[in-house]
Design goal:
It contains four helices and 22 strands. With 527 residues, the protein is of the alpha+beta class. The longest helix has 45 residues, at 41-85. 34% of the residues are buried.
């Protein structure tokens, strides 16, 4: 538009100059003809006619100049209206840009969570007598279990943008520089496009975490505790999780949600053949009223074809396709896992979940139970099964209720209507939380002090955690969490060289679990 405006003004100026010079020349000729110079009457009449023609042409040019000026003014007004109609807003710290017609938006997102933890456990002893161990086949983790590391860690440090284009298309792009135990150099957390023009359906493709259950439906910035329950996190990692390549169909109404997703590997992982997985979830709100809501749901998380660990050579029996079930004690300042099945050569994994939730004013309760079946690749060994469940609740001391999100089928944080302000004697929102969770990764483990009962046996361990927490929301952007966890791990050594050679592997049947307490804090800023 600026170039068009310049051309129009130049044209108008040229016309003005031409008209003025032509008229001046004619007037000069007529003036000269009025002097006695022997000019004939016919010549004088011709000059007069020419002057009349030039005057008429000058009037036409002036009219064209007026039209050009009007066009320029109209164009300027259109540009001003377009610029003024494009909106820039900041809601709860989140900058958002929107076009005049609302068909294009861009909202900037950021999350940072700084965690600190103190692990209260018995002092470490020599490997030969202190049998507490972590992951199988990992000398570092096996050794660290005796002395978990206190300290601080940026659990999440995310930057991204999300929005829509051409009204019916949504997009999201986010990078994460946080990590478990140590921060990472940066990786794709999600990168997707979504078509939402066939309400109530939405179709998404890219890298994103398909919702695997009730706790996963709650944003990581809105969870009651620093981490999800161990079993929910374990199942989330089968075919979901951050940065999972996937194609999904989703839909929701006022009281229901539905999701089906076909998934592949996590971004940044490479295998001989990618994993093929499936995530499905249905939820429903059977009863609700003024200030209360109930929720039920079911989920299925499947590894249909595990990723291959080597070339698929038929003559050698095909490529091994291993799965491994292991998890941390619901805290990641130290990344050591205390329960671990080790690698299982498997054809697939099926995890079925049942979920329920209830909210009445400032009180909320939720829980899930998962059944996990692993199908081994060889029929010579029995197929193991595992399980886990949790129940958790929250009470908002300041009265604001947790909110139910009908789009995701999960619970969200209380809304801070009166942010923290000492002068106004306003203290934001305060919330108490409690949880009990268990994860059982044993299969035909046998009694203590004995060898494995059979080649099919797995001594992954059973982990039980009691958690209590206090959450403070000064406003809708900042949040502080203080948690206490009592962790009990009951786990027997499989013997042999399961943890490595020598003293790293305790005798078969020895107790390698432990009891410990974890004190932790989180500082969170998110918009």
């Amino acid at each position: 538009m600026p170039r068009t405006k310049t051309l129009l003004l130049a044209a108008a100026s040229s016309l003005a100059v031409l008209s003025a010079s032509g008229l001046a020349h004619a007037q000069a000729v007529v003036t000269a003809s009025a002097q006695p110079s022997g000019i004939s009457q016919e010549q004088a009449l011709a000059l007069s006619a020419r002057l009349d023609a030039l005057e008429q042409r000058n009037n036409e040019l002036e009219a064209q100049i007026s039209d050009l000026k009007a066009q320029v003014a109209s164009g300027d007004q259109a540009i001003r209206e377009q610029v003024s109609a494009t909106s820039v807003s900041v809601a709860n710290g989140r900058p958002t840009i929107a076009s005049a017609d609302g068909q294009f938006t861009a909202a900037f997102r950021t999350v940072f969570q700084l965690d600190g933890a103190h692990y209260d456990q018995d002092r470490p002893g020599p490997l030969a007598s202190d049998f507490r161990r972590g992951s199988l086949g990992d000398a570092t983790e096996a050794d660290r279990a005796r002395d978990l590391s206190d300290g601080f860690n940026f659990r999440r440090a995310r930057l991204g943008v999300e929005g829509k284009f051409f009204k019916d298309w949504n997009y999201g792009l986010q990078f994460d520089f946080g990590g478990s135990g140590t921060e990472e150099a940066g990786r794709i957390n999600n990168a997707f496009i979504e078509y939402a023009g066939l309400a109530p359906f939405r179709f998404r493709v890219g890298a994103f975490p398909p919702t695997t259950g009730l706790e996963d439906a709650t944003s990581n910035t809105a969870m009651l505790f620093l981490e999800r329950p161990a079993v929910a996190e374990l199942v989330r990692g089968f075919a979901g999780g951050d940065g999972r390549t996937a194609a999904a169909a989703m839909a929701n109404g006022e009281r229901w949600t539905a999701l089906a997703a076909v998934t592949g590997n996590l971004i940044g992982t490479q295998t001989y053949d990618e994993q093929l997985g499936f995530v499905g979830r249905l939820t429903y709100v059977p009863f609700r009223g003024d200030g209360w809501t109930t929720h039920v749901g079911a989920s299925a998380n499947l590894i249909i074809n595990p990723a291959a660990t080597g070339p698929d050579v038929p003559a050698s029996g095909g490529a091994a396709t291993t799965v491994r079930l292991r998890e941390r004690p619901e805290n990641r300042v130290d990344p050591t896992r205390l329960v671990d099945t080790g690698s299982i050569d498997a054809d697939g994994v099926t995890a079925l979940g049942a979920e329920a939730g209830w909210q009445f004013k400032q009180l909320s309760l939720a829980g899930e139970y998962f059944w996990i079946d692993v199908e081994r690749r060889t029929g010579a060994l029995a197929d193991p099964d595992f399980s886990g469940w949790y129940v958790q609740g929250a009470w908002t001391l300041t009265g604001q209720p947790r909110r139910y999100n009908a789009t995701s089928g999960g619970f969200d944080t209380p809304r801070v209507e009166k942010p923290f302000d000492l002068k106004a004697n306003s203290w934001g929102v305060w919330e108490l939380a409690a949880r009990y969770s268990t994860l059982d990764l044993n299969y035909r483990a046998g009694p203590a002090g004995t060898a494995l009962p059979s080649p099919s046996s797995i001594r992954g361990g059973e982990q039980r955690i009691i958690s209590v927490g206090l959450n403070w929301y000064p406003n809708n952007t900042v949040r502080f969490l203080a948690d206490f966890q009592h962790v009990e791990v009951d786990r027997l050594s499989p013997g042999g060289t399961a943890f490595g050679a020598g003293a790293l592997t305790p005798p078969a049947g020895a107790q390698i679990g432990q009891e410990l307490n974890i004190w932790s804090l989180r500082t969170q800023y998110a918009f």
